Amino acid sequence: MPTIHPVLGDTLYIAQEIDSLPTCDTVHIFKPDPSIHYHAFCDDFGPMNLAMIAQFIGQLDAELADNPSSMLFYCVDEGRRELTNAVFLLGAYMIMRLEISADEVMDCFSWVNERLTEDYRDATFSAASFGLTLEDCWRGLAKGMQQGWVGVPCMYENEWGMVDMEEYSHYDDPLNGDLHEVVLGKFVALQGPHDLGALDFSDDARGYRRFSPAHYVDILHDFGVKTVVRLNEAEYDAGAFAEQGIAVLELPFDDCAAPPPHVVEAFLAAVDGAGGGSVAVHCKAGLGR
């Protein structure tokens, strides 16, 4: 059923299941950029990462600048997940570009409910046991801005707060390491390395790329990593990191499960004992545990 909801006064609306509107100078429609999307692992569908948020901010900035006197309608496809991701991006824009508080964003989307949208879930095909809400995501983004970790750059700059977006996008690529600095100067998350003999990386028949510990050594040094925490079963010799001055802590537990108390305690102790360095964390795929 076609729907239209207000977002920002009489300036910006979100529409669903609407392909066209009457053409006039005061109405302009635009649709999601195909390059702004979430790469699903299983039945997960978001939220979009920081690079996608940055692209959307650029898209919406351009739409507003090109149509200063028009009512803008952001038209998205049918489906709760499609609407959820569209609402998330619009809220992220309001927090980052317009510096609106998370509470005010929630007020702007007071019409959102569980019939229209869906909580984000973990990367499995099993029934979700925990839902990450839009409010959770927006408050996290607002907190990151409050801490100075992330922000909108000045013109012609690529530093989004403390995040170099070019570097972020480079390592986000599964062909370049599948790695993120989650908390700047504190935590790095990465795909689990593999023993590959003399190879730095290896591609399987599906195009999935695996990396050796050697591939990550210089990268982790650049991020100031002193300790790697391995949460899955061993698939490489820990000595490959230890010989390069990076300790490896073994804390395996079941995939897609909450870590047991002793793992949490050991992890927190490792973080406290990192001596000012960062801690890198991985499971098999880098997402899940």
UniProtKB/TrEMBL annotation:
UniProt xrefs under SUPFAM superfamilies: (Phosphotyrosine protein) phosphatases II (SSF52799)
Annotated Tyrosine specific protein phosphatases domain residues: 265-289
InterPro entries named among the record's database cross-references: DSPn, Prot-tyrosine_phosphatase-like, PTP, Tyr_Pase_dom
A Pfam match: DSPn
Highest taxon of the lineage: Eukaryota
PANTHER family linked to this entry: TYROSINE SPECIFIC PROTEIN PHOSPHATASE AND DUAL SPECIFICITY PROTEIN PHOSPHATASE
Protein name as annotated: Tyrosine specific protein phosphatases domain-containing protein
